[in-house]
Design a protein that fits this description.
Strand order of the largest sheet: 1-2-3-4
Helix content: 25-40%
CATH superfamily: Alpha/Beta hydrolase fold, catalytic domain
Order of helices and strands: EHEHHEEHH
Strand content: 15-25%
Shape: globular
Structural class: alpha/beta
Number of strands: 4
Number of domains: 1
Distance between the termini: 13 Å
Length: 126
């Protein structure tokens, strides 16, 4: 069994996205991106599309991830493009306030939004 939740912060969210894109038939309940630069045109333009493969759709398998939550602080310079739902319609964007350290991974991980998303994914998988 693969990961139940894949979390990527900052550039790690680009790596996580690419993993999901290359393993789209894998069972992944949640992709969680934090402080992601994926909304930046220069990043989006260099990535492949994250869509279901024709084979997986025909076989009734769900594309990975089942749910994608993107959490960002509007003051985070890396996530300056804001939410990702404009480019990936299935993304659930959530804003948080990380205070004076807007890009810190520890600030992101301590938010209720992250806790809710992770708990939901883990409970759905039981």
């Amino acid at each position: 069994m693969g990961p139940r939740v894949l979390i990527g912060h900052s550039l790690g969210s680009v790596v996580a996205y690419e993993y999901v894109r290359q393993h789209r038939d894998a069972e992944l309940p949640l992709l969680l991106t934090l402080g992601s630069p994926l909304g930046l045109r220069v990043i989006r333009g260099s990535l492949g599309a994250l869509e279901a493969s024709p084979d997986s759709a025909a076989e009734g398998r769900q594309r990975a991830p089942a749910r994608w939550v993107n959490i960002y602080d509007p003051g985070d310079p890396v996530a300056c493009a804001g939410g990702l739902g404009s480019w990936w319609p299935h993304v659930a964007d959530e804003q948080v306030d990380n205070g004076g350290d807007a890009h810190a991974v520890t600030r992101y991980l301590c938010t209720r939004a992250v806790g809710r998303a992770v708990v939901s994914a883990l409970h759905d998988g039981e």
